[in-house]
């Protein structure tokens, strides 16, 4: 009989020790561990428990950790070790005393993100981001309706045991800036620190190769791979323009342009906060750009487009993170189709690195509304989903006055 694999050995040992642990609890009328606020034990075992039961618990903790790390694989294991987000939301919750703002009972009473925000002075969006990240770690509970917050066992414990830039949209007002004693946004700071910039770039390459992104790993980036793929995939496109703010990047991309796309693909230096020079294009594509910027600056990006748009012709296509609503994400997480903790961690990271964040579909729609009249937001329901990709897609049409269909030019921003 072949020897059992390590993961089967671990799962069997976990099952054996868990049964031993559970039997001891039952025999001694000790409550079974729970995330519910009704569970008021700071530890599942008394310190007077027999050594073999304490050892069983220790083995369960060690074996479940090893099994998790094996199931992650080397890449995701390393990424998880380097992820500071699990601690970040807890530090903020502790510093602001957020747990004390939730009714202290057995979890039956609730408050709301809005009420907590009004008490703390933080925006409702930031409070929602922090608490939902904590919820993914089973600290607090959302419900019974979206936006309502009650205690879990962990947050109740926090409540019982004995700020700066509250609603800024500026990219330099970040936890990263505080930690590094700088007044610069992260990319400006990295530009003056070549070694750190190289490490950051290497980390992003590793991140891009994680499961769920391999379908799009070579599509996009400032050297115009998305534009190249679009031109190849759609021969009817007469012209694709790739834009980037860095002249050196554009020069390098132009020098390496595929020969078969000569005449159909061009490169242009452009700052997307300034007026768009490519007029009346059929489609303006932004890939992984908006999530780097707060609403204030994301709106500026859309406003800079407006003078170039042609009514009834021009569309804005945004290929970026679209976060499912809270109930959908919870369901997908339970079904093993999404990792809620990862989604909330990524949103949190965008906050402390860039004072930005990931957006739900409603947030994307609101962004176009903030940019003023003229946009018709087309994406509905779950149309934003792209199979095999962590990025979604939202589309808006320019419905301003005048214009007629053009020859099929695409302008592409990386």
From TrEMBL:
GO biological process: methylation
Residue span(s) of domain O-methyltransferase C-terminal: 216-372
Assigned keywords, A-Z: Methyltransferase, S-adenosyl-L-methionine, Transferase
The keyword RNA-binding is assigned to this record: no
An example Gene Ontology molecular-function term: O-methyltransferase activity
KW Transferase (keyword) present: yes
N-terminal signal peptide: none
InterPro entries documented for this protein: COMT-like, COMT_C, SAM-dependent_MTases_sf, WH-like_DNA-bd_sf, WH_DNA-bd_sf
Alphabetized PROSITE patterns for the sequence: SAM_OMT_II
Protein name stated in the entry: S-adenosyl-L-methionine-dependent methyltransferase
Source organism per UniProt: Rhypophila decipiens
């Amino acid at each position: 009989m072949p020897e059992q694999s390590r993961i089967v050995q671990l799962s069997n040992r976990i099952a054996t020790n868990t049964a031993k642990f559970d039997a001891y609890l039952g025999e001694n009328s000790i409550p079974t561990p729970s995330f519910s606020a009704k569970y008021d034990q700071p530890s599942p075992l008394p310190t007077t428990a027999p050594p073999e039961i304490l050892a069983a618990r220790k083995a369960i903790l060690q074996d479940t950790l090893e099994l998790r790390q094996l199931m992650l694989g080397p890449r995701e294991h390393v990424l998880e070790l380097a992820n500071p987000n699990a601690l970040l939301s807890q530090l903020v919750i502790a510093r602001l005393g957020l747990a004390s703002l939730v009714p202290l009972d057995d979890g039956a009473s609730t408050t709301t993100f809005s009420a907590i925000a009004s008490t703390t002075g933080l925006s409702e969006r930031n409070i929602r981001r922090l608490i939902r990240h904590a919820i993914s770690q089973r600290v607090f509970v959302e419900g019974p309706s979206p936006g309502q917050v009650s205690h879990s066992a962990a947050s109740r414990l926090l409540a019982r045991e004995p700020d700066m830039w509250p609603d800024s949209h500026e990219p330099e007002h970040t936890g990263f800036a505080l930690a590094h004693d700088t007044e610069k946004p992260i990319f400006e700071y990295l530009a003056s620190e070549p070694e750190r910039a190289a490490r950051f770039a290497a980390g992003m390459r590793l991140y891009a190769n994680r499961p769920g992104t391999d379908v799009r790993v070579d599509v996009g980036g400032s050297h115009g791979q998305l534009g190249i793929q679009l031109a190849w995939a759609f021969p009817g496109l007469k012209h694709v323009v790739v834009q980037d703010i860095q002249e050196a990047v554009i020069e390098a991309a132009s020098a390496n342009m595929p020969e078969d796309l000569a005449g159909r693909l061009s490169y242009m230096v452009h700052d997307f906060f300034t007026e768009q020079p490519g007029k009346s294009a059929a489609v303006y594509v932004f890939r992984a750009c908006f999530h780097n910027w707060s609403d204030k600056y994301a709106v500026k990006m859309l406003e800079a487009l407006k003078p170039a748009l042609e009514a009834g012709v021009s569309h804005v296509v945004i290929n970026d993170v679209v976060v499912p609503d809270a109930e959908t994400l919870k369901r997908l997480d339970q079904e093993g189709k999404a990792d809620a903790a990862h989604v909330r961690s990524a949103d949190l990271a965008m906050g402390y690195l860039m004072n930005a964040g990931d957006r739900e579909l409603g947030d994307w729609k609101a962004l176009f509304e903030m940019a003023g009249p003229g946009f018709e937001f087309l994406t509905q329901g779950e149309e934003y989903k792209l199979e095999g990709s962590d990025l979604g897609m939202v589309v808006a049409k320019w419905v301003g006055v005048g214009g007629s269909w053009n020859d099929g030019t695409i302008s592409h921003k990386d």
